[in-house]
Design brief:
The protein is of the alpha+beta class. It has one domain: Ribosomal protein L5 (50s Ribosomal Protein L5, Chain: A, 2-Layer Sandwich), CATH 3.30.1440.10. It has 5 helices and 5 strands, in the order H-E-H-H-E-E-H-E-E-H. Strands 2-3-1-5-4 form a 5-stranded antiparallel β-sheet.
Length: 186
């Protein structure tokens, strides 16, 4: 049985033991508070056109995202009506969840060590930063996560993963994520 009182995620321990020192040496930080760290990870599934015809699809996306994240996901709703898409205001269009703390480190560990190697023809992720030290990536199928039972899903959803850091530059954020074993391809 897992002792949750004394449990520390593997990547969180690695950050405090080795990654902090490596980042401090690499960028010459004078204070430990200058060292970039992970702030949160946001997961998003947009159920798209399927949810316009059937509102249960957004609920299905929410259940799958809850299983992946280990935390309750919320259903996202349309902000305004768009007649061309047959979309009405407050209509469910997807699901999202924000991970912080230990769950964030656990998810990042599962993402880099379990889910990404299961992606077909995987050659690494493209370094996609926003200029302020935040990283975003997309996955074509959410079924690469072991929490999803392939036999019970009706749709293979695409998924957005946004990793928010306290880094000021993209170089700092890329180095931080590389220390967390993020497999960049370039």
């Amino acid at each position: 049985m897992l002792d949750t009182a004394n449990y520390t995620p593997r990547l969180k321990a690695a950050f405090s033991e080795t990654i902090k020192a490596a980042m401090k040496e690499e960028f010459g930080y004078k204070n430990d508070m200058q060292i970039p760290r992970l702030e949160k990870i946001v997961l998003n599934i947009g159920s798209g056109a399927e949810s316009v015809r059937d509102t249960k699809k957004a609920k299905s996306a929410q259940e799958d995202l809850t299983a992946i994240a280990g935390q309750h996901a919320v259903v996202t709703k349309a902000k305004k009506s768009i007649a061309g898409f047959r979309l009405r205001e407050e209509h469910p269009v997807g699901a999202k969840v924000t991970l912080r703390g230990d769950r964030m480190y656990d998810f990042l560990d599962r993402l880099t060590t379990i889910a990404m190697p299961r992606i077909r023809d995987f050659r690494g992720v493209k370094p996609s930063f926003d200029g302020r030290g935040n990283f975003a990536m997309g996955m074509k199928e959410h079924i690469v996560f072991p929490e999803i039972n392939f036999d019970k899903i009706d749709v293979a959803w695409g998924m957005d993963i946004i990793i928010v850091t306290t880094a000021n530059t993209d170089a700092e954020a890329k180095s931080l994520l590389a220390h967390f074993n993020m497999p960049f391809n370039a």
